[in-house]
Every structure is written in C-alpha cells, then in structure tokens.
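Sample intake sheet
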Amino acid sequence: MSQSACPDVRAARLQADAYAERFSDAVPPLTPAQAVIEAERCLYCHDAPCQQACPTGIDVPSFIRRISDGNLRGAAQAILEANPLGGMCARVCPTEELCEAVCVRQTQQGKAIEIGRLQRHAVDAVMAEGVRPVFTRAAPTGRRVAVVGAGPAGLACAHTLARLGHDVVIHDANAKPGGLNEYGLATYKTADDFAQREVDWLLSVGGITIEQGYLLSEPDQLASLRAQHDAVFVAVGLGGTRRLGLAGEDSLAGVMDAVGFIAGLRQAESPAAVAVGRRVVVIGGGMTAVDAAVQARLLGAEVVTMVYRRGPQDMSASDVEQQWAKTQGVTIRHGLTPQALLGEAGHVSGVRFVGTDQPERTETFEADMVLKAIGQVFVSQPWAEAGLALAEGRLRVDEQCRTSLPGVWAGGDCRAGGRDLTVEAVEDGKQAAWSIHAFLESES
C-alpha cells in the first residue's frame, strides 16, 4: 500500500461545536401548525390500508383525526394502546415501506401522509408531560412474570402485562435498558436520550422491576426463572455477529463490528470522544451498515465506502436509507465480496474485493478502519440446551409466541420467522403478553 494508507484513526476530528449539529435529529419534528396541516390531508379511510400495513395495528385514521382536532393526548393514547413504543417506532420504523407505502394519498397523488412524523408529534407531546401515565394499571393479580431482555419486545411485553395487573421482573445483561433502541441505533435517530426517556415512561405504569447485569448463559438459570415465576418471556435478540472468515479479522487493529461501533458512539459522553478513521470501509447492505457509514462521516471521516455483495435492489436497507447515506457523502458499491483484509504493522490498511458474479474482477479500497455489518445471529446456547426447540437457527414459537417449553414464551429478533424490525418486536411482546395473561387467567 502507499504511504497515504498509514493508519489515521483518532477522535475529535471536528471543531467542538460541529458535533451537536451533526448528531441532532436527522428528521426534525413537526411544528404544531405543520402537524395540523398534514393531519388534514388524511382522508380517514374506512378499512384503512395504512392500519392494515402496520404490524402493531395502530388505528392511523383515528389518531390523525385527533391531531387535527387538537387532541394530542387522545392521539397518543390511540397510538400507545396498540404500540407502547410508538415514540421510538415513529423514529426508526420504515414507514415508507409499511403504512405510508399503501396510503391512499400515495397512490392518488404520489405523496403519502407523513404518518411517522405525525405519530412522533403526538407521542412526543405526551412524553413532554413527564412520566404522567396515559394508562392506569389494573388491580394486582399476585402473579409474577420474568422477562429476559429489556429490548423492544421485552419492554412491550412487560408494559402490557403490568397494565393487566401482573408483576414483572425484567432481567437484562446491559447497564441500561432498551436493547437495540439504546445500543444499536444511530444517534441522530434517537437524539436527546429518547430511548431512556421512553423507558422511564413505560415504567411509570408501575409493577415493573428491572435487574441489570443479568446474563442468562446456563440452562439452570432458565429452570430457576421458571420455578420462581408464573411465566417467562424470552426476548434476548441476536447476541452474535457474522464473521468475514478472513485472515486478520481478529488480529488487525481497526477492524471491528459495526454494532460495537454504533454502541460505543451511543454510550460515549460526547461524539468528539469517539475515534474514527480517515478512510472507512463498511461491509454490508442493511440499516446497521447505513447507520455506521453515515455516523463515520458525521464524525469526520473523509472517505466512507459502503460495499455490498449484491445489487441495490437486494439491500435490506430501504431506498430511503440508501439515499440518506448518499446525501451524507457515503459511496455505495455493489456486486463485490471481500476477499482479503490488508494490513501494515498490525493495523488494517485496506480491503481487497472480488466481483460476486465476476471473480476475475478485483478492487482494493484503502482503509484505516473497517466496520463489519454483515448481519447478526442468534446464539442458541443455552436455550437449546434448556430444551427450547429451534427453527431457522432461532427459537421456534407458535402464533401466540409460545415456545416448546410449557410456561415459556419468546419474541422479537430471537424468534424464527421475523423481519428483525423494531415494530414487529413490539407486536411480539404485546401478543405474548396477552397469551401469558390468558394462561394465567386459566390457572386461577
């Protein structure tokens, strides 16, 4: 490699005042006037296709009508009744591929109602009131449920069960609750510590206790939870990441998982404290790859190249996400598979790629930081050892999120058959809670 490829990874690449602007909301909230104008575009359709397209079944016309009437608390209640994490989903849900894609205004005029931004407008108004609950808790039932994992599925399940009067203990391995909402999303999507403010609101319903630093790694731990609780909900997400399988992956400095890079940025005291390379290569084509690539640029990386092995139509990142990356200065290359990590003096200096369908084609990109975003995987131990059946490498569940073990439910990214969307994880948690509630009622 040339002398220009010498490692250049450091923090504070920008002027101090640049970080606040760069890591503020990527999509600014609607003003009250803008929200009313947008709400009044809605046709309030009967059998609305937007509601049918929402994995949590939010009554979209109802909440939008309430916004147009100035009833923001009522609008938020309609949203949160169906989706207790409606604030975060409004920020990160690919609405352009779900509710907004089937909006009648989209099919008629080519411009959908901005459902996601309206949803955020209503929920944020309630969050601004502090922890004043929208819902009241039912009389205590005396039943205790263990939830393993404080991500979207676990939080949704816990909140729904608590509303029904059950006591819930959430066991989570991390220092903060929230799962990927706290550790795995771009800072510009969850500005102003929204993930923790949403958790505070969820806990305000009462009846929920969170035990941090709890890592379930032995089958006996699950057996103990089953013995000490009336039901168990497993929502541990995907604990592992896929590997490139290339020499130097573990030994070369500057090579890391994109998930770890994003988590480090989210937990840093300031973005200025996070080191980034001058030349960054991101391998992958999903939303994690986009989040990592864009944030590398925002931190001051001069050249960020996102490389995906197939075409743009095959990328799991939405068209909107892909365009967002490009507008932030990220170059996206397609049809290339990583062949070798190149290094100098123990530090990565580049990546050599070959054409996915043209092995004779090779391209090399200089890099002093390589971020791997090629997917996360479910860690089957100790769940398989504890007797939980697997399917497609994840936990097998039925339509009510029941596992193969009596009294144990599972949902979110760890269950087979999902699309790894926050909104789907929330729906899993909600449906599992209702199934658990029915089970507990039958045992009374």
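Comment: DSSP finds 16 helices and 19 strands in the chain. The chain has a mean pLDDT of 95.
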